[in-house]
Design a protein that fits this description.
This protein is of the alpha+beta class. Helix 1 packs across helix 11 and helix 2 packs across helix 3.
């Protein structure tokens, strides 16, 4: 190891972040990965990894104290410059390690705002940002008051899961109390939120030295909760740049990230535009690259690879030399579906605007890009019909996924 070489420790209990690892190595860093034992055969970029270590896992759950002890043992011969969580489920683990080893970066308190759905809502509400009415599943008297004040339907959400995992729609109070009773000692790990019908958007952001350098807004075709729980084709497309919705989204996104205290890195945040009043409401955020191949969608529309830029930011936090690469101002659209075929044939999707095709068992996926948002809309409409006709199938969402 060179005397001035920086060491990046990556933590990932799921298979993702390969381009982060490659870019960190291209930047001259020593790169170490700690991942799940069940991912020994995963497609990690081993040519870019100096060391890889495996944690025993049951459904991707690690013993955090064992992780701290193991990483501390490695620190006898490794000097960590940064510790990075590549997956949402690892944000808290990385924060605990930073706190314990006194490595710079997001600590326990700030990490909570980007993992705990209750903490992020409370903080946003304190900052005057619109959020759907919610209550912590804790004090039963306060829950009763909330139910009298806020009309159903509601959404019951686990505080620490990712995406739509574990979310349940509640149609009436009696249904809620039955679920609360079954939760037992796990009640306090949930919140109840007013179900707001509307269109869901996401904004993906690059932050450097507390300044937003890049933010791009997209609109989901259907709410992710509906896609996950009812079985639909997942889709998202770039919002027209400079449109009223785009301006409002970028404004509320700036307020959210400022109030939650993200100083460096990447954020994926979600918002809803309510059908009833046309206002935007904050739903949730994260300190990581969005899943479901949204990084590829953003690269199609902008030329920016969020994983690669994140690696650069981590390695150039102190010297102030990070610069955003030149941007394209194209538009992109993505659709992904579970497929009834093991390897669906996507050769029929041969328009010149096709940018990317997913290669994954029992999945069909396409990204299109164009300088025209109208052309993206046209292709997305046509391709969605073909996906439902030729590939689509569905299966129930697991409350605690193990893959």
């Amino acid at each position: 190891m060179k005397e001035d070489q920086k060491t990046i420790l990556c933590i990932s209990s799921y298979e993702k972040g390969q381009e982060f690892i490659r870019q960190a190595k291209r930047e001259g860093a020593r790169v170490i990965l700690v991942t799940s034992q069940s991912l020994q055969d995963a497609d990690w970029p081993r040519e870019s990894l100096d060391e890889i270590y495996y944690m025993p896992d049951i459904d991707k759950k690690w013993d955090v104290e064992q992780l701290i002890n193991s990483v501390s043992f490695l620190a006898r011969s490794e000097d960590y410059y940064r510790i990075v969580a590549l997956d949402d489920f690892d944000v808290e683990k990385a924060a605990r390690l930073r706190e314990h080893l006194r490595v710079p970066g997001m600590g326990d308190t700030t990490a909570r705002y980007f993992r705990d759905k209750l903490a992020m809502r409370m903080r946003a509400r304190e900052a005057g940002i619109n959020v759907p009415d919610f209550v912590h599943i804790l004090n039963h008297s306060k829950i009763s008051e909330y139910l009298k004040k806020v009309a159903p339907p509601y959404v019951l959400k686990p505080r620490f899961q990712a995406g739509a995992i574990g979310i349940k729609k509640i149609e009436k109070a009696e249904q809620l109390w039955d679920i609360i009773e079954k939760l037992g000692d796990q009640q306090s790990y949930y919140l109840l939120e007013k179900f707001v019908p509307g269109d869901i958007y996401h904004v993906d952001t690059i932050i450097y030295n507390e300044e937003i350098l890049f933010a791009l807004s997209h609109k989901y075709g259907l709410p992710p909760m509906e896609v996950a729980h009812e079985g639909r084709v997942f889709s998202s497309r770039t919002v027209k740049r400079g449109s009223p919705d785009d301006k409002k989204l970028l404004s509320i996104n700036k307020s959210v990230l400022g109030s939650l205290g993200l100083r460096q890195g990447i954020s994926h945040s979600e918002y809803i535009k309510a059908h009833e009043d046309g206002k935007f409401y904050f739903l949730e955020t994260s300190a990581r690259v969005g899943g479901a191949n949204l990084a590829e969608l953003i690269e199609a529309a902008s030329g920016i690879n969020l994983w690669a830029e994140w690696a650069k930011i981590e390695l150039h936090q102190e010297d102030g030399t990070y610069k955003l690469p030149p941007l394209r101002k194209d538009y992109g659209g993505i659709m992904i579906s579970l497929a009834k075929q093991e390897w669906p044939d996507l050769s029929g999707f041969d328009d010149s605007e096709v940018y990317w095709k997913l290669r994954k068992k029992h999945h069909a996926g396409i990204i299109v890009k164009s300088s025209s948002p109208e052309r993206v809309d046209e292709l997305m409409s046509s391709y969605t019909e073909k996906f439902y006709r030729d590939f689509f199938t569905s299966q129930p969402l697991k409350d605690n996924p193990d893959n």
